[in-house]
Amino acid sequence: xxxxxxxxxxxxxxxxxxxxxxxxxxxxxxxxxxxxxxxxxxxxxxxxxxxxxxxxxxxxxxxxxxxxxxxxxxxxxxxxxxxxxxxxxxxxxxxxxxxxxxxxxxxxxxxxxxxxxxxxxxxxxxxxxxxxxxxxxxxxxxxxxxxxxxxxxxxxxxxxxxxxxxxxxxxxxxxxxxxxxxxxxxxxxxxxxxxxxxxxxxxxxxxxxxxxxxxxxxxxxxxxxxxxxxxxxxxxxxxxxxxxxxxxxxxxxxxxxxxxxxxxxxxxxxxxxx
Length: 274
Ligand SMILES: [Ca+2]
Known about the structure:
The chain is about 20% helix and about 30% strand. The chain is built from four helices and 18 strands. It has helices at about 1-30, 240-250, 250-260, 270-274, and strands spanning about 40-45, 50, 50-55, 65, 70, 80-85, 90, 105-115, 120, 125, 135-140, 145-150, 155-160, 170-180, 185-190, 190-195, 210-215, 225-235. Strands 1, 5, 6, 8, 14, 15, 16 and 18 form an eight-stranded antiparallel beta sheet that branches. A six-stranded antiparallel beta sheet has the order 2-3-4-7-17-10, with no helix packed on it. The protein has a four-stranded antiparallel beta sheet with strand order 9-11-12-13, with no helix packed on it. The termini are far apart. The relative contact order is 0.19. The structure holds calcium ion (CA). Calcium ion binds next to strand 18.
C-alpha cells in the first residue's frame, strides 16, 4: 500500500514536470514568432499602445513615439501613422542585436503620403563611427533617394536619386540592395526608376550605435511629415516580384497567403524565386 502511494506520488511528480516543460516550450514559441528570417522591422501601424507603436516582425523592436505621431484611419492597408514635423519613432538602435543589422543586403519598403515636397527621411540609422549608413528619402529637389554606406570614412556603396516626389498622394517607396549581386535598385510605385552597381566592395556598416529612427534623421534633420503605412525593413535585397507583391497586398497579407499554401513563411524567398 505504502509502496503504491510512493509510486503514485512519483508519477504525479513526473506528470507535473512534463506539463511544466510543455508550457514553457509553448511560451518560448509564442515569444519567438519571427515572421521571416530576413525581416528585421515591420510597422503596419495597426497597434499603438500608449507611447509605443508595436513592431510586428516578431523581434520586438517597438517604436517609442517622440513628438507627435498618431494613428490614422486613412491608411493604405487599414490604419497608418501620421507624423507631424520633427516627430519620430525611436528604435533604440544601440540595443538592436548584431544578427538583426542588415550588412549583406537591405530592402526598405513603405507606403508614404507626404504633405509637401521637401527633404524627408523615412528611416535613418547611424553607426558608432558616425557613418550615415542609410538614406531612404523623399527629397525637396523633387526626387527620391536610396543610399547605403560601409563603415567610415567615405564608403558610399551607392547613392540613387530618381523618380518624381509627389505630395498629398500615396506613393510606394522600395529600395533594395544585395551585396552578392553588387546591385541596388529603387522602385517607386513598382516601377524601377533607378539602379546602381556597387561602387565599392564593402558590406553595410554593421551597427546602429548612434541610433535608429523612423521619420527623422539622427541629427534632427529631414523631418518626415505626413502619413506612412506598411513600413518593412529587410536584411537582404528583395526581388522585383517580392516588391510588387508587398506593394499590392501589404506585407501581412503577402506572408499569410504564402503560409496558407502550406509553406512556411521562412521559405517565402525561395518560393518566389522559383
Ligand atoms: Ca496599416
